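User: Some background: our group keeps a shared notebook of sequences we're curious about, and every so often someone picks one and asks for a predicted structure to add to the entry. Today it's my turn. The entry only has the sequence so far, pasted here. Could you supply the structure so I can complete it?
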Amino acid sequence: MPPTLSHVRTLVASYLNRHPGERDALAGLLAALDAGGDPTDRSALPGHVTCSAVVIDRNRQVLHLRHRATGGLLLIPGGHVEADDATLLAAALRQAEEETGVPASALVLTPGFRDGPLDIDVRDVAPGPAKGEPAHRHHDFRFVFHLADDAPELALRDEEVTDAVWLPFDEVSSPTLRDKLAASARDGVIVPVNAPPGTVPNVVGVHLYLEQEGRVLMGLRHPDSAYAGGSWHVPAGHCEAEAATVCLVREAYEETGLVIDPADVELVHTVHMVDRPDDPPRVQLFFRARRWEGTPKLREPDKCIAWQWWSAKDLPEPTVPYAREAIEGIRTERAYTELGWGR
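Assistant: Of course. Here's the predicted structure to add to the notebook entry:
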């Protein structure tokens, strides 16, 4: 099945957290997400999502292809999402392999970019009378890959591509992509995410999933909060020297005043994630409480300024991205989510 609406929303939310100044430029995409249809359907108007692969070699050069359909313009590999693409990242990998012959196994995610888009470009597309397509827009998600040392030679799809050119960062054809690449990996070292060997500690977070009549309890983080200021999140905290359920009960009381018996909770979802390249990996445990005592109170106003019940099917914006993924997983009875890892 194609990427879910929740998946696309999560990628966009994470992207805008990194690039808040681009919210206006992505207004059309945000409107499409709010409309609730399939933004990856190529028939969606006035615009839809496409995916591209930013393939970087060891010399910090980016692969560009000369496409027949564009009159010979140099563009990075990419195109429309198909029904079998489970994620937007998968769509970018498929497009790269189809157009260049380089298999997905030879395209490695890097610590600096991981599985979120480095750039989301908005491009106007002229009408295509031959295909019966009116003028529309492409919201192009650009994912970055490092070309593995043992990657095979390019095998271009002749019916679509006439030539391949490797361009340095400062000559990349897209201005928005060029600027973001120029601001990244300045030392020229691009290390695959699976390169550093050894075991590293994982931070464990616990999260309280309270639901009544289809509504989930969420708190609005204080605008000055060190984490996710101004975003909605479920009650949560980090494990200290204690069991996860003990931590959950403690954090729930400290944040909301609710009294919960550890015997009345069950693990309903786990997120294993890497948020930023320099952060430790995190295991986020979501527990459902079957019973509790009390009503939510603002016990830590420096961290949370409101508690509110929201429909699990219509969460507020902005919601912390991994919490949105977890709640969607709980709704669909999916037990596990990975975010930020290479495939």
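Suggested note for the entry: The chain has two domains: 5-182, 203-339. The radius of gyration is 22 Å.
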